[in-house]
Structure formats: structure tokens, C-alpha cells
User: Fold this.
Amino acid sequence: MPTIKYRISSRVHNGQAEVLARFYDGEFSQRAKTRIAAPVSAWNDEDGCLVIPRKTTPETVALREKQRQLDELTDTVSNAWWRDRFDVREGWLQKVIDDFHNIPQKKSRLTLHDLCEERNAELQLDAATITKYKVLLSALDRFAGKRTLYVDDFTREDAEAFAAFYRAEPTSNGVVVRSSNTVSGKMRSLRALFSYAVSMGYVSQNPTAQYKIAAEVYGDPIYLTMEERDQLYAFDSLPHHLAVQRDIFIFQCHVGCRVGDLLRLRQENVTEDGWLQYIAHKTRKSLPKTVRVPLSDVALEILARYKEMSGDRLLPFISAQKYNEDIHDCARLAGLDRMVVVLNKQTFDEEQHPLWEVTTSHTARKTFMEAMFRATGSERITSAFTGHADGSRAFARYTHVDDDMKRNALDNLKK
Assistant:
């Protein structure tokens, strides 16, 4: 039976959000924008309609008019379906809605750039994710050359050709060879972009669906021991600008947050009784739980040191890229030169590198997770500090039970 359901967009402006439509009949399904904005406070998610008080006021009159529009739109779509159901094409629902509003159809076709911009706005993606998709679009542009990539004619063959191009990209200076992990990451982003296109009814099939994305392969996580962490913090011969970034890195080692969250933290994220609390931005939509971490004496000492120079921000953070560069310099000058085994992601051969050379902002998070799991032996307690989702594949890499932990567990059992 043909059915149309409405939901409110997550993109809110001045208390209003656009109503989105999904029409389906059996296996057929398309989504579209209704071009009708409604007050979020009056929207009933369960019933997909506006809640209108009985008392007549200017506000209720406006709500009745909005609901009348939606009811008329429902009738229009239903009638169009019985008329067109044997010859329904991509974008049919949006065209019916635009005709309802007397909106002329765009002559230009939807490009991948247009699609990406719409998706970024609709899903309210954070700055780091938007940058990731800008990098993807730049790579697609280099792949296409003078050809414009349109959503409706991008094929499975295009997806496979792009993956091959990105894996070994020819440039004026030779060939840039990228790792399997890097290629897989780009293809996952491309698949997500086309999944959105399918959900909006722009295309009926995802052209990347049949492309087999290789599982990402990682070596053992690299982290600082507690002695190395304390050695770095105690090193007092750093230039002032490096000492500041070193202190931020040490703070991150003591709280275990992602660098993206570290950048967003404000003074109000610290409670009066000395706890850091925040919602992890990466999982805010799928796992919007509050992460609470009791601040150590060292963490509190660092916060007090920079409170006057940070403004409303928690710490005087610089850009993520410059932060990583400074961390390399700090670790090198402090003598963190222990040789560690690193997996070459292109050849999958093992390589030896000094610790300072592979230390990044994410090393701080790894250091915290390793120390916490070693201290507690509990994945659940550790993930409560880090904000990982249950069953996270990334988290599983940091919870390796070594021989020392086994001995300690056995000794405690004997006691």
C-alpha cells in the first residue's frame, strides 16, 4: 500500500526545520524535501505531523495552515503515484513536490560537489568530517580531469577506476603510491556519499555497493610508557611555545580524549569538584553519552597554569596539524628515542622507528587507554573513560592482555 511519512530535518534555524518526506510502496522507496518549514517545538515525531492546540491564536492558525499544506501534499503525491507508478524514475518524488509548489525544475544535473554540500548541511557534519570530504572531492576531480562527475551517471566501473587511480596516482613528479588503508578510507567515504544519494532518491542504486572495500590493517598500537610520559613532562629545556604544546599533550595523556574533542573543550567542561565532562563529538549521534573523567593532580596543575591565557577555551590549543608537528619536536628533544616496530601500510613489512618520530596527538589517547586497561583489566571501565561504543573494533586493539596482567590477576586471585 502506498504510504508517505514525514519527519523533521535535524537542521534547525530560528526554531524552524524543513519537513522531509519518504514515499514507499512495496520495495519502491524515495525521499525528498517538502519545501515546507515547521516549528520544531510543535512537531510530533511519532505521528509525523504537527501538534495543534485547540485554542485559536495566531500561532495555531499558522500551524493549521502548515498542516493543511502537508495534507494537500500527501493527496498530490498519492494521485501522482497512481498516475506514474508504471514509469517512475529517479527524483520522481522531488519533482512531484516541486510541481506542487510551482518550482521550476533545475536544468543542471546534480554533481558530486552539489551532493556533498547538501549532505554536509543536512547531516550537520563537523568541520573535520567536512574537510575529509573536501579531500575526497579533490581526489575525484583529479581522477575526472576535464570531465564533470554527475551523481546519476557515476558507475561501478567509475568507482573501481577511481580506487585504482587513487592507489597509484600519477603526478608531474612521478607516481604517488598510497596504502590500502588510505584507499579503503576514501572508498568508505564515497560509499557513504552515494548512500545518502540513494536515501534522497537521486539514484536507485549505490555504484560502490559491489566494490569490495579491503579491511583496514593496523600494527600494534604505539604508546608512551608512564616513565616516558613523565620524562616528557619533566623535561625543562623546551622553548616556551613547545612547552605549552607539550603540556597540552600531557593533559591529553591524563584524560584520554580525542584531539577533536580537546580542541572544543571549554572552561565549563570542568566541574567544581574536578571532573572533566563532555559528549564525544565523533559518536554524538550514535552514542550521545556524557564522558566523565576525574582530573589527576597533573591535569589540574596544567589547567591552572593556562587558565588566564586560554580565555573561554580550556587550553591554548593551536591547529591540529601544527600540534602534531610540535609534539614530534617535543618528544625528540626530550629524548624519547626508544625503537618501536611500525607496520608499513603499503608493503606490510615491519620497520623500526624511534618513538618520537611516530608520536602524534592520538598517541596521547592510546597512552591513556593502555594505562587505564593495564590498571583495571576492565574493558568496560576503560571505555567509560574514552567514550568508545560497545564492541568498537578500534577499542579492541588497545585491550591486549599481556603476561604481566595475567601474573597480576593470578596473584590477586591467590590473595
